[in-house]
């Protein structure tokens, strides 16, 4: 990662703004010119750069709420990388320009992208974005110290030192490392100690009590038609998220996922870039291939060096034989009255302990509900006539039979039309289930607390959890013409 140019600007809400320090790197500019070819856009004079930056940041023309070159709807803003439109000779766009501001200062840099200008690579693929922001934060710490507004003499003194500092930490426009200069802005991001080198992508280290949190969440989706001519669909998607508060510059953590003896192998596994090594067989199982029983079935070990912030360690899919709740929904119409019959059955493998479980029955494109005469075998029914909606609250447990039913009639004779929706017309009606089951996954996948290994100077507290919840879980009227919906 290299910089084409670097600027430090002082301002007072856009007024009396001036460039206090600037540095251009001719060797990097030469590389930029070779990469861009005929699309090369030169860095303009300082006055032009200052005006373009203030306009893009909304710090100039305060009397104008709309500025065409910044607010035009045809422009695609891709924060945090700004695009400065240059007019005149060499007309074009400077990108990506990174900025951070605090107190009276704006720090900005123009990064070199080692790729042709068109098409632009996704920001997520550019390591220079995160490294550039981290570099600017290091300079900000050096200039402002622990406060947001140092005295003017202190700022002048540090700006005078900046040429020699840049020469040391960023020779020829390429940072050697994040400049750990001066005191940190907050005590939670101290300068690392010891012989281990601080990586450029990590802005600090954790100090304090060591805690590792690992959460496994599985989401199940289902389309149930109750019709032999149409196959029911369901799938399971799992994610493992971590928050590791562990001391050390590069601590090592290993999280292991395990399956029950008869569990289906995990498929479509994607991992976070911080994972340091992985068995190649873990990544080969795909849901588009037929599972022949020879796929890797665990245990799944993920060694990694965690970032400071919470992150998604991995995601996966799983093929399970049946959905957790099976439904049968029958709806028939007589005059302006609907006869409703619904049965929900909790599968025997699913833990009968919910945080919540609700069934929503909408009836759109009709008059408002009038008489609602329905009976449920368990739970409570709430009627919203204005929304033409029945909400069946099943509570935290199914009965011992694991089956609940609803029977009744609904008359639509309200004074005004109810809500409309193109999806739910006539007998094309559905039930949507919302539920959450703590301490369970449908695939049986789990993270054993004792299998989480942390190689650190202090022994951390390990916290693990898992849960199953629904998303897009539909049961369609078996006597109607349900639309074909794909996940």
Automatic annotation (TrEMBL):
Keywords, sorted A to Z: Cytoplasm, Endosome, Lysosome, Membrane, Protein transport, Transport
Membrane topology label: Peripheral membrane protein
GO biological process terms on file: endosomal transport; protein transport
Location(s) in or outside the cell: Cytoplasm, Cytosol; Late endosome membrane; Lysosome membrane
InterPro entries xref list: AP2_Mu_C_sf (IPR036168), AP5M1 (IPR039591), MHD (IPR028565)
Residue stretches making up the MHD domain: 209-476
Stretch forming the signal peptide: none
Primary subcellular site in the record, as a coarse category: cytoplasm
Entry-linked Pfam families: Adap_comp_sub
GO cellular component annotations of the record: AP-type membrane coat adaptor complex; cytosol; late endosome membrane; lysosomal membrane
SUPFAM superfamilies membership: Second domain of Mu2 adaptin subunit (ap50) of ap2 adaptor
Key word Oxidoreductase present: no
PANTHER family listed in its UniProt record: AP-5 COMPLEX SUBUNIT MU-1
Similarity annotation: Belongs to the adaptor complexes medium subunit family.
Subunit-structure text: Probably part of the adaptor protein complex 5 (AP-5) a tetramer composed of AP5B1, AP5M1, AP5S1 and AP5Z1.
Stated name of the protein: AP-5 complex subunit mu-1
Species: Echeneis naucrates (Live sharksucker)
